[in-house]
């Protein structure tokens, strides 16, 4: 079964570093899924292409065709990659406006890879204090690693301590694990009662084997 990935970029310029990051993320996820033998497909949506539609939806309560088709793809996707520029320490107004017109249960249970861009690394925590709570509120399931890219992460002056591609590959691997069914969340908890039973001993049996305190 092919896994469907929706990619949403909230970049405003053309080209934009936000779209560049989105493209790198989906490419890395594709490569990670290929390594796991999982078929995949994706569509990339630029919010600036439907900015007027989003405004109209906010004012009228009805989504124009292009926006409705985009939101339908997102709702039916197996995973979402969401990337936004950071303005004034948080996600962009366009990005939030899109979230506001998205059906409340559209991405419930959907694994989400979060990405963000900004001119300076001072905004690197925005993924965790702004984006992650937003998607958690929508009952989506953001993966552990978010990817932030500052201007210094691109080109010859890229940070040699934690290079952007390394962070991208780590996040892509986590999302691919979720989509391939091999995530850590699905592994057996060694402290769960069923883990003891699988080993042939009941929880009560294990208690009787504990050394006594004399």
TrEMBL record:
<protein>
    <submittedName>
        <fullName>FMN reductase</fullName>
    </submittedName>
</protein>
<keyword id="KW-0560">Oxidoreductase</keyword>
<dbReference type="Pfam" id="PF03358">
    <property type="entry name" value="FMN_red"/>
</dbReference>
<dbReference type="InterPro" id="IPR023932">
    <property type="entry name" value="CE1759_FMN_reduct"/>
</dbReference>
<dbReference type="InterPro" id="IPR051814">
    <property type="entry name" value="NAD(P)H-dep_FMN_reductase"/>
</dbReference>
<keyword id="KW-0288">FMN</keyword>
<feature type="domain" description="NADPH-dependent FMN reductase-like">
    <location>
        <begin position="4"/>
        <end position="154"/>
    </location>
</feature>
<keyword id="KW-0285">Flavoprotein</keyword>
<dbReference type="InterPro" id="IPR005025">
    <property type="entry name" value="FMN_Rdtase-like_dom"/>
</dbReference>
<dbReference type="InterPro" id="IPR029039">
    <property type="entry name" value="Flavoprotein-like_sf"/>
</dbReference>
